[in-house]
Design a protein that fits this description.
It is a single chain. The chain is α+β, with helices and mostly antiparallel strands. It contains seven helices and 20 strands. Strands 1, 2, 3, 4, 5, 6, 7, 8, 11, 12, 14 and 17 form a twelve-stranded mixed β-sheet that branches. A five-stranded mixed β-sheet has the order 9-20-19-15-16, with no helix packed on it. A hairpin with a 3-residue loop joins β1 and β2. The radius of gyration is 18 Å and the shape is globular.
């Protein structure tokens, strides 16, 4: 199932070039009072929502996919966990280019660990990317994004995929400079998730997926997730050794070589096999 959010917080199922509007299925979600839960309610109750979708999809109205403004398929992640330098060639690329590392210490991911991005940085494809600090280099990074489906702590790599709700394309945008990664990668709009969530029953194995990114039609990044230093299973094991993972938490798995600068007016096209296409416009922040 390709599950999307679009328009005015509507819920949809993507079928070819159309969206089935199944927003009515959200009525099965539990009502919450303050304090709010530390998980995304849709992802935490995904199976219940899917059963309701099956009941109503036959009479659902449709929207052309080309006319829909796509939102992040996860509205309220508790954490966005990111994996630095998790492709061998990208690690060497960063080590070789001062414009990328700015004298920051660069370690293999097993030593560097993971880092967090602000949840306020999260947008969908329709929002576009509002670049800040235009006097500095802003770079694109295309990544496979993993959405956690159930609560877990100290998860073994053997059991890791049981905790996956599904997969998306992630764009991790970064301002180059000497500051900590989390600061430079967390401005508003610097994490794009989409175009939809492909549920794990439809994409059961993400260990060998082709992925690519172009800017204005120019190829920039191309790789396969088999080139990851730590794959999806290992990243879930690593992250859950430090944090309890909750439904809706997102792990972006790292980017391959070919990172490059963005400027206002650029048009990005990201693609991951088995997920689809993510098209995003770049502009200057207001």
């Amino acid at each position: 199932m390709k599950l999307c959010r679009f328009g005015n917080n509507q819920l949809g199922i993507v079928e070819g070039e159309r969206i089935l509007d199944v927003t009515e299925a959200l009525e099965v979600l539990p009502a919450h009072r303050y304090p709010l839960p530390d998980e995304d309610p849709l992802i935490a109750n995904l199976e219940v929502v899917r059963r309701r979708i099956d009941e109503i999809s036959g009479t659902a109205s449709t929207v052309p996919l080309s006319e829909a403004e796509l939102l992040s398929p996860v509205a309220s992640p508790g954490k966005i966990i990111a994996a630095p330098v998790n492709y061998v060639k990208h690690l060497q690329e960063v080590l070789d280019d001062h414009n990328l590392h700015h004298d920051n210490q660069i370690n293999h991911i097993q030593r560097a660990g993971l880092f967090l991005k602000a949840t306020s940085s999260l947008v969908g494809a329709g929002a576009g990317i509002p670049l800040r600090k235009l006097e500095r280099r802003n770079d694109h990074e295309v990544e496979l994004a993993v959405v956690i489906g159930k609560r877990g702590n100290n998860i073994s790599r053997e059991d890791a995929l049981d905790y996956v709700a599904g997969y998306c394309i992630g764009l991790d945008i970064t301002i180059r400079g000497p500051e900590e990664r989390s600061l430079r990668k967390s401005p508003d709009g610097y994490t794009v998730l989409g175009p939809w969530l492909v549920t794990s029953d439809e994409l059961s194995d993400a260990s060998s997926l082709d992925l690519s990114l172009t800017v204005n039609g120019e190829p920039r990044q191309k790789a396969n997730t088999s080139d990851l230093i730590l794959g999806v299973r290992e990243l879930i094991e690593f992250a859950s050794g430090f944090y309890t993972l909750h439904p809706g938490d997102v792990i972006i798995t790292g980017t391959p070589e070919g990172v490059g600068p963005l400027v206002p007016g650029d048009a990005m096209h990201a693609w991951i096999e088995g997920i689809g296409d993510l098209r995003v416009a770049v502009r200057a922040a207001a």
